[in-house]
Design a protein that fits this description.
The chain is mainly β and about 450 residues long. The chain has a domain at about 140-330. Helices cover about 10% and strands about 40% of the residues. It contains 6 helices and 30 strands. It has helices spanning about 1-30, 75, 85-90, 145, 210-215, 330-335; strands at about 45-50, 65-70, 80-85, 90, 100, 110, 120-125, 135-140, 150-155, 160-165, 170-175, 180-185, 185-195, 200-205, 220-230, 235-245, 260-265, 275, 295, 300-305, 315, 340-350, 350-360, 375-380, 385, 405, 410-415, 420-430, 435-440, 445-450. The strands form 8 sheets. Strands 3-29-28-27-26 form a 5-stranded mixed beta sheet, with no helix packed on it. It is globular, with a radius of gyration of 24 Å. Residues about 1-30 have low confidence and may be disordered. It comes from Flavobacterium frigoris. Keywords: Signal. This is DUF4374 domain-containing protein.
Amino acid sequence: MKNRFLKLGAFAVLIGAISLASSCNSDENNTSGTSEPVITEGRYITVAGAVMGTTNPTPGDGNGGTIVYAISKENAKDPSKTYDVFENGFAVPSNRTARLQSSQDGSTIFNIAYTGTNGGEFSKYTVNGGQNFIPTGGVVNISQYAGTSPRWAKLFDGDKTGVSVNVTSPLIMTNADASYKHTRGTATVLTLDLVNSLIAQTKSYEIPLTNTEEAQGHHIFRLDAPVLSRAGNKLIIGTWMRKTNPETGTNESTFTRLGAKSVVVDYPSLENPIVITSTVGFGDTSGYRSFNSFVGDDGNIYQATQREASGSHILRINSSNQYDNSYVFNLDTALGLSGTYIENWKYAGNGKAVVAYTHSGSAVSALSGQSQSFLALVDLNAKTAKTLDLPYNADMYFFQYQGYVVDGFDVYVTAAPVGQDGRIYIINSVTGVVTLGAKLINKPGNHFIGAF
């Protein structure tokens, strides 16, 4: 028995030594101290393209609808593969550019049709590869609450919930003596049960600013880009601000902006809206057609600004759901440019993000009239940014871009000038190295708007 225990003890020491060595080797191989995000084996990369409109068409307007095509992850990475998305893809129901989201694993596409007779219709599809998108769960119309041009985002809650937000056209109210009082619209926040394809809850209310701000004519023009807090008890919703001239009752095209604002509501009740204000950023926080706020690995929410004279900021909202004004990250400073504008972006894990931006020195496309876009890898912790190595072109823009796929350290994006062939590109979120993926065939006036 004594010898048996001695042998077992020696074996345990040996296993411990091997484990220690393995641990050391692992540390040596991961010198950056990063942890690998989730990898989904066998997933599809769904490429989305926007079709040029037929009424008063402008190349890159995206007013002719949306086409999607699903490519296996392995083929998406293969530069020898070629796909004609617009010729062979599936037309997503939408009069204009569809508002798309996808499940985390890429197996399901969620869509809300934008404008037209079916505007506000929610539908979802199982992704089976190529043009095979199988409708599932029925169709739900949310237009009576959110309008026919709804803005929405999927929460990162296990693909259970979507949130649509809307503000009715703001109206001017006057005092008893007919003097200007304020401008307000009625806000609606709606939750969608993505599993059962039904409306879960809606709440409507006016959202006032301070008396001083409202007396000056400031008001919320649009809500967009909701995100769920790490604690899961608050929704933070981005705002697009405008200003009425109290003397004339007209909108002011230029005005001194207030600090960037967001609306915070209780979740899941959607009650008790309050407005929080940044003293760091002075732009809007609504984004455009994509996510604009993300919960980082550290539990803070990171939020981009738009329409900011001093260049876009990425702001931080802490666990108390207040702006952390000690965190200052200005993209102008990080890139050494002026007038930067974050068009959309994607958090990629470990404090890294891929950002689509333009700036005051960007070329303006003679074809689309849009400013040229660029992609940068951002480090939210170090507050640095570097432009990624892509074949940029004056006709390449990401303003309408909607989706990026994060799979491990890989970030999949689609990029092409308007009307020209392009590629899927795979960006390593740690190193910033860009790898060439499958070729994408384009058509005149069309452009690619996302990977899902």
